[in-house]
Design brief:
The protein is of the alpha/beta class. It has a single domain, classed as eRF1 domain 2 (Nucleotidyltransferase, domain 5). About 35% of the residues lie in helices and about 25% in strands. It has five helices and seven strands; from the N terminus they run βββαββαβααβα. It is elongated. It starts with 5 loop residues before the first strand and ends with a helix.
Amino acid sequence: MKPIRTWIVIADGVRCRVVTNDGPGRGIEPRPDLDFRSEQRRLRDIMSDRPGRATGVVGKGRHAVAYSSDPVREDERIFARSLVDLLEAESAANAFDRLVLIAPPQTMGDLRSMLPKRLQDLVSKEITKDLTKLPIPRLEEHLRRSLLV
């Protein structure tokens, strides 16, 4: 009988690690080729330029125009989109049979909203925690308790 290949995706807004499991009792195997992070930009670098100026409707003066979005949050959404794109490509290549997603609440929400139906059907469990910085032995211990790997 062919083992069920599970990809465990551990992500936050700027980092992603993928570990694999080939069935109960087999533990987890890190995938170094799927351990990556986005180019994390600091808010002061993103917003280094002065905001634009506009003339007011009332009066003669000009005033600064406020930013319309949070640039750091936008970077996190872009990172989540790139992660979903990667998962779609790997799913099309039959690299895994099911997915486990582990991410903090905000990132988990981004992933849920971006996952296509085909990938949503492969998600067997979601854990809403930030485990990206956990070393592999502690991660395996944690997953063994919650996933029976």
